[in-house]
Amino acid sequence: MAVRVCLSAILLAFLLAASPIARVAGTQSEEDAAMAEVVENADLGYVGDDTPVSSDAPLTPAPGVETVCVFPKNAGKIVPAGEETELLVGLQNDGESTLNVVAVHSTLHLPYDHRMYGQNLTVQSFYNASVPVSVQATFPYTFAVSKFLQPGAYDLVGYIVYEIDQHPYQNVFYNGTIEVVEVGGLLSVESVFLITLGIALLGLFGLWAYGQVQQLSKKTKKGPKVETGTGTTDANMDEWLEGTAFAKEKAKKNK
């Protein structure tokens, strides 16, 4: 009985020690699966914003297949929350076999940590979308972020999934920053801050210029003239000189 209790305690301690490793391994496997998602049994067109996309093994790009991404008429990559945004996915097949495009989908991440999802975006599937060897093709993709998403900068990761000889592959056609803004908001938070700062600086400059003008006008103003009559001056001088030889001499001259 004592031996069984001892073995149970050792087994429990081993499980507790191994649990963090299991959690780390589970996190890494989830991250790998998220970075290599594939559409299965998808209908034609838009499947939905929160449609789960998964695969048994991470998908890699096929040799000779290159992709590019363009935001038409949206060079700033500004995405209004709750409204549809369109982009174009270009695919160049320089491989050895014809490929069949399965789907295009994307995910939204926080810019400082891609392991933290902001939102799984629209999954768009295709039927009979084949690209022969040495051919370029363009696929439109429309997505919409949640209208409740807080405005700001986010990282968008877009994937295009295709098959060659019934073997699935995947390319990342875009991995960069987009600016999510409120619907009807023409200015971003940074733009509003810069405009407000500019107005404040102009106001301070105006107050400083007004103060300089006021000081200059005070200096140019002339003080009031004070006129003194000769009679008053002479009377004061007589009082000071009364009884002196100069006063007597002056009195004689006046007579």
Question: Could you explain how this protein is built, in words?
Answer:
The protein contains 4 helices and 9 strands. The longest helix is centred in the first third of the chain and has 34 residues, at 2-35. It is α+β, with helices and mostly antiparallel strands and 255 residues long. The termini are far apart. Helix content is 35%, strand content 35%. It is found in: Endoplasmic reticulum membrane.
Structural class: alpha+beta
Bin the strand percentage.
35-45%
Average pLDDT works out at 74
Oligomer: single chain
Transmembrane segments: 192-211
Family: Belongs to the TRAP-alpha family.
Subunit structure: Heterotetramer of TRAP-alpha, TRAP-beta, TRAP-delta and TRAP-gamma.
Membrane topology: Single-pass type I membrane protein
Task: Give structural attributes.
255 residues; alpha+beta; six-stranded mixed β-sheet; three-stranded antiparallel β-sheet; 4 helices; rod-shaped; disordered N terminus
